## 1
Amino acid sequence: MKIIIVVIAVIVVLSFGVYFFVLSNRDNTTEDADATQNNQEDIQQYTDITSEELAEMLVNKDFKLIDVHVPEQKHVPDTDYLITYTDIDEFKKIFPNKDEKVVLYCRSGSMSRNMAEKLVEQGYINIYNLTFGMNEWLSEKRDTVPIGSVNN
């Protein structure tokens, strides 16, 4: 009988221990998540756009359009610059004003997303990214201009 009471007591003590351990870790996780969310809110983010949204924006163009793809590809009409996605210094020379509205694109969206993230880290606040790049633009059978037709 004494053994049963001891076993039950051990189970109860262990249960409370596990309960408090889980509870304390959950509170820390919640605090960490809240801190991460607050830090992300402090950072200005870029805006993802679709091919359709870019086409609409081009009607009354009030931004600079930059192809960041390597190697050079066909371009969206009215592309202003060809700047390699890794050449942040070149971008900063051309666009010293961090408020200037800029749309970036590449073939699939990964290079332009990479550059958009780097520009946001540098303090640029009006950056747009063509989410699926030229792949989406071409799949919708939109016009292009040939390689070599954009100044860098």
Note: The chain has two domains: 1-42, 47-139.
## 2
Amino acid sequence: MTKTVLHKLDPSIGILIVGHGSRNLLAIKEFAILANSIKASFPGIPFEYGYLEFARPIISEALDRLKNKSIKKIIAIPAMLFAAGHAKNDIPALLNSYGEKNGIEIIYGRELGINNLMISAAGQRINESIKAASSHPISETLLVVVGRGSSDPDANSNVSKITRLLVEGIGFGWGQTVYSGVTFPLVKPGLRNLVKLGFGRIIVFPYFLFSGVLVSRIRKQTKEIASENPNIEFLNANYLGAHPLVIETFLERVNEVFSGDNSMNCSLCKYRSDLLGFEKEVGLPQISHHHHVEGIESCTLCESECTSECELIEKTNNEHEHARLPYPHSNHPFGPVTLHSSN
């Protein structure tokens, strides 16, 4: 894969990578590894990273560090796979407020999105799981891609596009998309329906950057469905992590700021277009809903991969969702309502 040719950066310009944050220490360590790998590509350039919630440094603290280096112009890149509420509202609201208050120009870059690099990174993670398993025809294998899930249908649809590109790229017999929260179908009800298709092997791939309670939940629920269907081979592919092609995509996003090709897709944005079913959300104010969870300390139970013994994250995230307009399909029989039942 051809490396991105970086524009020469002025050392008076700082770079900020903005992560979501997690109470899982492993996820925080993984993000730090990713951020430092990106930093290595910009020697001599002031570089910081910060979190939206659940970890330190929070975004304003990372910006303070750059400001203390007399930086007056900052490129901020959201470490988000797709543009939903965090990338469209929470992060830019915080950046805009800080920039206006401190007289600093902050240029907001694009989310990682869909490109050849991200598709190739995902494909390699899936192929790693296949190579480590018993031989089974790809044509008789079902790929299930698990997205985070959000109240933004445009972001959710991008996960489905990822699924289709992977299915055709590798040649799976079938492919489906499920989600870990907020939207539908969720993992457990989704898998319960998919086992009826009759495939001898199912690969479950969490399209996530890092570990955490949601990845743990995906694996736990996959194990449960696998125990109900011993005749089917289930494989768990690893999440993306600090894959070199993911890092390359971050470099591409920084480069776009200088090339002028730094635009988000607004044609299907529920805040800018009369998107079917979400017409009431057009023009909603751009505000952050995360001030009350900024910098919360990591969970002492989560020294390694999340065990999901502590569900505080999900509880808090649900409260965040309630601060916005309610998701119109929250009671969908294959969706969020199943998180609160034994089904």
Note: Residues 311-322 have pLDDT under 50 and may be disordered.
## 3
Amino acid sequence: MGASVTVLETERLALREVEEADAPFVLELLNSPGFLENIGDRGVRTEDEARVYIVERIIGSYREHGFGMWLTVQKLDNTAVGLAGLVRREGLDMPDVGYAFAQRAWGQGYAQEAAAAVLAHAREALGIPKLAAITTLENFASMAVLRKVGFTYQGTIQLPGVDRESTHFTAP
């Protein structure tokens, strides 16, 4: 692995830029049942496709917007547990806080810890005053996380290219 850039840290987690070498983890996460059900199928089925996804979608967002999804690793053992960060999404007029964690990391408070850190980083380091977040209508666990870190439910929204409505949250 190269010299990965750590963007922010919490008590238990480090969020760093995703690299091509992270393709095995990204492939696993994008094809996990929770990701497919709650976020969607990205059509990534091989490590080569995961590398292309990383370069085009994730690193491309860093270049285009100055932010994106960051690999979330446990500081204790440097094990990747998820992705968390900021996304520019068509149909939203502000950046969107997003996160996805491997099922083995569920129930440990990582989503809340990472989402709160991303929200603070967006405000303090990036100067972004207002953020959005979306979930599927059935993703009650994620909605609870968003409320705990300061997001307010705004209703549902139909985003371009998404075949179902999403819940829509904002944080001032």
Note: Strands lie at 6-9, 13-17, 69-74, 80-87, 96-101, 131-136, 152-157, 166-171.
## 4
Amino acid sequence: MPSIFTKIIRREIPAYIVAEDDHHIAFLDINPIAVGHVLAVPKREVDYIFSMDDAELAALMAFVKRVALGVEKVIPCERVGMAVVGLEVPHVHVHIVPLREMADMDFSKRVKLTEQEFAAIADAIREAVGAA
């Protein structure tokens, strides 16, 4: 059964997509821990990040960097952090999170946003990533 991320990749369910290339896609987390929280995933459905071969992993990290630099241009923050947990969805995904302090990387808290806020943030990040 395809993961929810595969369904996003196939455009079977909607998402606030901020970047995409032939092998990766990035979109806003719909249950974010911070404003501007993005998920970056490989288009090939693979469950565990350390099951990826070295070239795939390196390409994913380069894509994550590109997206993170776009997030940093749009969302006021000290740094952009990343996390790979891998327990929620059986499809590799990297959390890209704007940080002001260590406590911002707390997955037990969530930020509520309206559809309009999600759309505006996605548009801004998409533009910033495209300009990078």
Note: The radius of gyration is 14 Å.
